[in-house]
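Input (structure):
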């Protein structure tokens, strides 16, 4: 069950790199499970730790000041590469609820929306400003499809109505359909198939 997402207020964690692919988000060796819980510890694993297994203190998600931050700002073409639903699973388990970039790969974007992770695509100039100022606080209004910047200005982002509804209600596509079961049953009861007439 996904947690509803109507509004998000958080400081940002910044990854300036471009073309961050799904294998960097969650390395292939951790795809042996279908459990979402616990995948966050493996998110960006090869960047978060040194070769000897110790934490890399320079990696943004290892820095104390970023603890609890739930908005990731990344370079262009985030989530490219292979299609793996584990990538948004790992990010959500890590505590990330929204990813902001100037470009987000289509398959990753689709998988993210199915798993309660909000992909936010903004103009490159806006994203560049966010990349240059890590740790600033943003407010994301899902219903209004707007991000409020520190100065109070707002920028709009694309989000289709169905995806927005699922995020606001905290359901995936199947959950949304299951909630429509009573209406489907009523329709079926009032629209019984009429017998075919012989020609």
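Output (sequence):
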């Amino acid at each position: 069950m996904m947690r509803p997402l109507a509004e998000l207020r958080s400081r940002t964690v910044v990854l300036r790199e471009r073309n961050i692919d799904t294998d960097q988000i969650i390395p292939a060796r951790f795809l042996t499970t279908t459990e979402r819980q616990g995948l966050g510890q493996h998110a960006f694993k090869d960047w978060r730790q040194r070769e000897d297994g110790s934490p890399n203190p320079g990696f943004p998600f290892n820095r104390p000041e970023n603890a609890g931050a739930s908005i990731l700002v990344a370079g262009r073409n985030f989530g490219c590469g292979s299609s793996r639903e584990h990538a948004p699973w790992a990010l959500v388990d890590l505590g990330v609820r929204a990813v902001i970039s100037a470009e987000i790969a289509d398959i990753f974007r689709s998988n993210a929306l199915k798993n309660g992770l909000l992909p936010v695509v903004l103009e490159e100039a806006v994203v560049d400003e966010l990349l240059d100022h890590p740790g600033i606080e943003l407010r994301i209004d899902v219903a209004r499809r707007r991000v409020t910047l520190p100065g109070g200005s707002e920028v709009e982002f694309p989000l289709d109505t169905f995806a927005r509804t699922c995020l606001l209600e905290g359901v995936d596509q199947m959950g949304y359909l299951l909630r429509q079961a009573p209406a489907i049953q009523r329709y079926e009861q009032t629209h019984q198939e009429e017998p075919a007439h012989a020609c």
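Notes: The helical segments are 22-25, 45-48, 86-94, 106-113, 124-132, 161-169, 173-179, 181-190. The chain has one domain: 7-188.
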